[in-house]
Design a protein that fits this description.
Layout lengths: L10 E11 L4 E4 L2 H12 L2 H4 L1 E6 L6 H14 L5 E2 L10 E4 L2 E11 L6 H11 L13 E8 L2 E9 L6 H15 L12 H8 L2 H20 L17 E10 H14 L3 H17 L3 E6 L7 H4 L9 E6 L5 H17 L5 H15 L7 E5 L21 E10 L3 E7 L4 E7 L6 H20 L7 H5 L11 E3 L2 E3 L1 H11 L5 E6 L25 E7 L7 H11 L12 E5 L9 H5 L3 E5 L7
Parallel strand pairs: 6-7, 12-14, 19-20
Antiparallel strand pairs: 1-6, 2-5, 3-8, 4-5, 7-8, 9-13, 9-15, 10-11, 14-15, 16-17, 18-19, 20-21
Helix pairs in contact: 3-5, 7-12, 8-9, 8-13, 9-11, 9-13, 15-16
Length: about 600
């Protein structure tokens, strides 16, 4: 794969303007998916948020046939004729569908294509992602036709994420191929965006959104705040450059099919269970929290809609079961529950996230993302890999890209081979560990095809070692926490005042009533321990609420393992033995409390 278009042969560039006409002009509010993506488009680097694809053109196809097919797609799908009017500095609230208009096709004619033509086409499409789409006026596709001596070879496209996601690109790719083959496209069965927005705004749609917010809030209040909480980790939400690692494995395809037959569950469910098992095992967690972006197309009204439905389903799967078969059974229900709660008002979601994480004293980030697009009609393979089905098992490194998560996977195909691309943050996965992670996933599937796998045997079966934290890390409020990191961050938050952070038996504050007998303390009472922070304020007036507010402001950029204490105790001067918790406890208390609102 190339990062930038670098043709090895001479090219000629021309631009063709293509007129299209569709149905009626329409106007309506945004869908929840559009609003979610537009929020990102207005904020993020366009090379990260725009998306791209490459459509091979069959030999013998004329340029006119290509432009006719593109014209037909624009006329067929309202989403491609949609713009989002808004004033500078404001976000759109409406979408406008045009009845007619034009788009341009840039034709790059070559004397011959480079040695890796598919990779070259991919690089042209990727380069077109640069530059923000003008939402209020620009046609949402940037189209480049690559030709050789006038004969079309590839269409390289960049899409505005406001009108398309991976599923929509796959649908368009399939329909483009059918149009070039002379087939008549069937009638549309899924809703266009304006009608989808009306369904979402209906009383039933609003109830669904409210239920989704409640579901997310439960996970954010009780689940691990970061999956990869370990000394070498970084906070969720801090970008890293991660190289693409691609697995192609006939072994994996056979094993997945065999495990699905043996357990009686769909392949997608078995693969999700295996993914969650190895993620939680590697992270040393009791549960796996993973975002599943493609999950919200399971309903017929959006299954083949050319729009963006990019809203996460958030899967929270407890992996504390004796063996893998029980986890597969549990995964089926958990996935359905996540899918049902993947439609929500994204503005209200982030307001809730900000409120909950401030109260909990945590930081929410999309730490793990699993995107299974293998069921789409034309899987998005980046470059065309249809001729590489013979690999028993190969791992190939590709180009780097900015990664706002710790672990991102795309499953492109499951048969005849398992084809997964993985981006793993270098801060928590060395190159060898990333390769071992994908190889370990295949090993687990092979073992599951042969029989039930005890969960306690995952290290032996997969070869994946759990995170190493050391004895000073604690399980607090469902999260792995480093008291030393908390102390250092809180000390900075309160301007360098002396701070001591210690573990004390529960219940207290937001940890009240949380039962976890696996904790290193509090086992006798059955209550999970909590953290207490002692702050020696001297002559500086300080309230627990001020300390908590200052700490939570630093947490998003702090190191891994930082969770706000459940209790803040303000004292005058530090003890003569500042490393002894009992010495801090004997001091006179000036003020104490959770630092949270009274409702917590």
């Amino acid at each position: 794969m190339h990062q930038n278009p670098q043709p090895l042969t001479s090219t000629t560039t021309t631009t063709t303007t293509v007129a299209y006409a569709g149905g009626d002009e329409r106007r309506g509010p945004l869908t929840m998916g559009q609003a979610n993506m537009i929020r990102c488009i207005l904020r993020d680097d366009p090379t990260h948020i725009n998306i791209h694809d490459v459509w091979p053109v069959p030999e013998g196809t004329t340029p006119a046939a290509v432009t006719d097919a593109l014209r037909a797609l624009a006329g067929r799908h309202e989403g491609l004729r949609t713009t989002f009017p808004h004033l500078p500095g404001s976000a759109p609230v409406d979408q406008v569908v045009s009845a007619e208009g034009t788009f341009t096709v840039t034709v790059l004619d070559h004397t011959e294509l480079p040695a890796d033509p598919a990779g070259y086409a991919e690089s042209v499409a990727r380069a077109a992602r640069a530059g923000r789409f003008a939402l209020e006026r620009e046609f949402p596709l940037r189209i480049t036709l690559l030709t050789v001596a006038g004969q079309p070879a590839y269409v390289a496209l960049a899409f505005s994420h406001a009108v398309a996601d991976a599923s929509a690109m796959a649908i368009l790719r399939e329909e483009f191929a059918e149009l070039l083959a002379g087939k008549e496209l069937p009638g549309l069965t899924s809703l266009p965006p304006v009608d989808l927005a009306a369904v979402e705004a209906s009383p039933a749609g609003l109830r669904k959104s409210e239920a989704s917010l409640r579901y997310w809030e439960r996970i954010l209040r009780t689940g691990p705040q970061e999956m990869f909480a370990e000394p070498r980790g970084r906070r969720p939400g801090t970008d890293e450059e991660a190289r693409q690692l691609t697995l192609r494995s006939r072994r994996g395809g056979r094993a997945l099919a065999g495990a699905a037959r043996r357990t009686g569950h769909p392949e997608a469910t078995v693969l999700m269970a295996a993914w969650c098992a190895v993620v939680a095992h590697r992270a040393g967690q009791d549960s796996c929290v993973t975002a599943v972006p493609s999950a919200n197309r399971f309903h017929a009204r959006v299954a083949r809609s050319v729009t963006t439905t990019s809203q996460d389903a958030l899967l929270h799967l407890d992996v504390r079961v004796p063996a893998f078969d029980a986890l597969v059974s549990r995964t089926w229900g958990a996935v359905l529950n996540a899918y049902r709660h993947s439609q929500f008002d994204s503005v209200r979601l982030w307001e809730m996230i900000d409120r909950v994480t401030a109260e909990r004293g945590s930081h929410f980030g999309r730490d793990v993302v699993f995107n299974d697009v293998s069921a789409l009609p034309a899987p998005l393979l980046g470059t065309d890999a249809q001729d590489r089905d013979d690999a028993e098992q190969e791992l190939v490194w590709g180009p780097p890209q900015a990664l706002p998560t710790r672990l991102l996977a795309f499953t492109y195909r499951t048969a005849p081979q398992l084809h997964i691309s993985l981006w793993a943050a270098p801060s928590v996965f060395t190159a060898e560990e990333a390769e071992g992670f994908l190889s370990g996933l295949v090993l687990l599937l092979e073992a599951a095809a042969a029989g039930d796998v005890p969960m306690e045997a995952l290290a032996e079966v997969t070869g994946i070692r759990p995170a190493e934290r050391g004895p000073d890390w604690l399980r607090v409020d469902g999260c792995w926490v480093s008291p030393d990191a908390v102390r250092e961050t809180l000390g900075r938050a309160v301007g360098g005042l002396p701070v001591h952070v210690t573990e004390e038996p529960g219940p207290y504050g937001s940890a009240a009533g949380a039962a976890d007998t696996d904790g290193p303390a509090g086992e006798a009472s059955g209550a999970e321990p909590h953290l207490t922070a002692y702050i020696a304020c001297g002559d500086t007036p300080l309230a627990p609420e001020e300390a908590h507010r200052a700490l939570t402001a630093l947490i998003p950029a702090a190191g891994s393992g930082v969770l706000a204490p459940d209790r803040y105790v303000i004292v005058g001067n530090p003890p003569t033995e500042p490393d002894r918790s009992d010495a801090w406890r004997r001091l006179n208390t000036i003020d104490e409390g959770t630092g949270r609102s009274r409702q917590v």
